Amino acid sequence: MYIDVKMSKKGEIVIPAFVRKQFKLQEGGNVRLEVEKDEVRLVAPKKDIVGWIREHAKKHGKPSNQILWGKEVEEEMYE
């Protein structure tokens, strides 16, 4: 399936509501752009980042605002 979207002057695009709902994307959430030669793919995380941060913080006895985005989080979210 292909969906055409417009890009703003700032390079922003709007992800249609039905796509956001299908992949459980929320405002302020992360998505990944995979860039290869002449192709760009938008990849949704496989896990809920907010839920993962809360779970990880609780597991390690830290406040959730002290969990930093890093390789561990990236691997959990997208792989």
Which descriptors would you attach to this protein?
79 residues, alpha+beta, 3 helices, 2 strands, 13% strand, elongated
Can you tell me about this structure?
- The chain has 79 residues and is α+β, with helices and mostly antiparallel strands.
- The protein contains three helices and two strands.
- It has one domain (17-78).
- The chain has a two-stranded antiparallel sheet with strand order 1-2.
* Unreliable spans: none
Distance N to C terminus: 23 Å
Helix content: 25-40%
- Cα radius of gyration in angstroms: 15 Å
Main sheet? 2 strands, antiparallel
Question: How many domains, in number, for the residues?
Answer: 1
In total, the number of strands is 2
Offer a concise description of the structure.
The protein is an alpha+beta fold and 79 residues long. 33% of the residues lie in helices and 13% in strands. The two termini are 23 Å apart.
How is the topology of this model organized?
Layout: H1 17-22, E1 32-36, E2 39-43, H2 49-60, H3 71-78
Antiparallel strand pairs: 1-2
